[in-house]
Design a protein that fits this description.
Elements: H1 2-13, H2 16-50, E1 61-64, H3 73-78, E2 82-84, H4 86-124, E3 129-131, E4 138-140
Antiparallel strand pairs: 1-2, 3-4
Length: 154
């Protein structure tokens, strides 16, 4: 029973899909800091500037202690205040949108390549059979006489 389980696991682990998934996860992990930097360092500063010098990573409100004001999120965390960090959440949503769009473009490109390959393969396939016009049987394309109904073919 254990031997069969290990054999089944080995077949699963060496399938191409598992390897592809592992590569995707590794590349996704490497891609994440790039997207986070793009959002926090390139996209959000101009948006914050347009909205009146707003730093989205410092948008928060304090739950406790009520009435106390902190200059930054770091100051609030240092003081032990409980905060709702909606600016960080906005940055995360924008990062997600960028990653989703990049994955969409990647999948779209891959699907286009697959479709082109499929069309090339279809063009390369040479027709080797035809249908007899009298008995509708499938016969060799070079046949002069149908082997099923013995009709003469043009």
């Amino acid at each position: 029973m254990i031997k069969a389980f290990l054999k089944e696991f080995k077949e699963f682990a060496v399938k191409g899909n598992v390897i592809d998934m592992a590569v995707g996860i590794i590349i996704g992990g490497a891609f994440s800091p790039i997207v986070n930097s793009l959002v926090s360092d390139i996209i959000m500063p101009p948006i914050g500037y347009v909205l009146g010098n707003v730093d989205f990573s410092n948008l928060f409100f304090v739950i406790t202690p009520k009435g106390q004001h902190f200059a930054s999120l770091a100051d609030a965390k240092t003081a032990g205040a409980v905060t709702v960090n909606y600016g960080v959440f906005i940055n995360t949503l924008i990062s997600f949108a960028i990653v989703s769009f990049a994955v969409f473009l990647l999948v779209k490109a891959i699907n286009k390549i697959r479709l082109e390959r499929k069309e090339e393969t279809a063009k390369e396939e040479v027709q080797t059979t035809k249908t007899c016009p009298y008995c509708c049987s499938t016969i060799n394309i070079n046949a002069k006489k149908c082997p099923f109904c013995t009709s003469e073919l043009n």
